[in-house]
Specification:
Elements: E1 2-4, H1 7-14, E2 21-25, H2 31-43, E3 47-51, H3 71-81, E4 86-88, H4 92-95, H5 108-111, H6 115-118, H7 122-137, E5 141-145, H8 149-161, E6 167-171, H9 191-196, H10 199-212, H11 218-231, E7 235-243, H12 252-257, E8 261-269, E9 272-280
Parallel strand pairs: 1-4, 2-3, 2-5, 3-4, 5-6
Antiparallel strand pairs: 7-8, 8-9
Helix pairs in contact: 7-8, 10-11
Length: 282
């Protein structure tokens, strides 16, 4: 595996390559990331991964400064898996040599709901760095995980709007045996919080099952799930059933008619904010 730190080195490595498959990450890699890279290997060659903690997608009171940075361990994991040909690991000065005054503005109908409501500007920061990385790598395929469901939709919409020749593939959420979605932020959890954390997924499963059983009052289901989590000590941001196609709230008639839905949640457990989702297919 080649490890490069500058855009010039990256482009030298990829010159003439027309079938690049790309996985962007912020590092502190876990089995979920490695699954994305394995999928990328099945859809293109060479595979490029990036590790860059992007300041633009962090709010002023978020965890940019303490976000886990584990480059040496990440390189070791990638070399062991042997799916990645080039790792692009730039520093902030390389990615932003001057203030990033040009930024992608995510449409409010998608970017200002759910995660966007509780993390203002988050998707503008994500879209800007992904566009910049796509410009550097010029992939034919890019792989993202479904755990960040809204982010996946934002990236796909951006590629569609800008006519980018990138096929954005989605990998199913990778979970621990108890159901907790793998996340770099899980390392923040105390042992007691880690034992409680799978409850978020269990509530998603419960709501999804009730919808499949024919319960069409999703507002009631959302409220009951949020109340149960709050009773257990969670601080809720949202627990919401939405249409898969656009993340808008479904009507009762759409629920009854079998509209493909997804239930999404975000909440704090202690000092750690967790997100998760589950598609509802009927």
């Amino acid at each position: 595996m080649k490890v490069v730190h500058t855009i010039e080195e990256l482009r030298d490595q990829l010159r003439g390559q027309l079938n690049v498959s790309f996985v962007p990450t912020m590092g502190n890699l876990h089995s979920g990331h490695l699954a994305l890279m394995k999928m990328a290997r099945q859809h293109g060659d060479p595979v490029v991964a990036s590790i860059f903690v992007n300041r633009l997608q962090f709010g002023p009171n978020e965890d940019f400064d303490r976000y886990p940075r584990t480059l040496a361990n990440d390189i070791e994991k990638l070399e062991r898996e042997r799916n990645v040909y080039v790792l692009f690991a730039p520093d902030e000065r390389e990615m932003y040599p001057e203030p990033q005054s040009y930024r992608i503005q995510t449409p409010p109908v998608l970017g200002d709901i759910l995660e966007g409501e509780f993390r203002p500007g988050f998707f503008n920061g994500v879209s800007t760095v992904v566009m910049k990385l796509f410009s550097c790598v010029q992939p034919r395929v890019a792989v993202f995980g479904k755990k960040d469901y809204q982010q996946l939709m934002v990236v796909r919409a951006m590629c569609r709007q800008f006519q980018l020749p990138v096929n954005v593939l989605a990998h199913e959420t990778v979970r621990d045996a108890d159901g907790l979605a793998l996340s770099s932020r899980n390392v923040y959890l105390t042992p007691q919080e880690r034992a409680e954390a799978p409850q978020l997924y269990r509530q998603l499963q419960a709501v999804a099952q009730r919808v499949r059983d024919g319960h069409s009052d999703v507002a009631e289901l959302e409220g009951l799930a949020a109340q149960e989590l709050e009773r257990r000590g969670w601080e809720m941001d949202y627990f919401s059933v939405r249409r898969q196609r656009d993340l808008l709230a479904p009507s009762r008639e759409e629920v009854q008619a079998g509209e493909p839905l997804v239930v999404l949640a975000a909440a704090k457990l202690g000092a750690t904010r967790l997100i998760d989702n589950l598609e509802i297919e009927r």
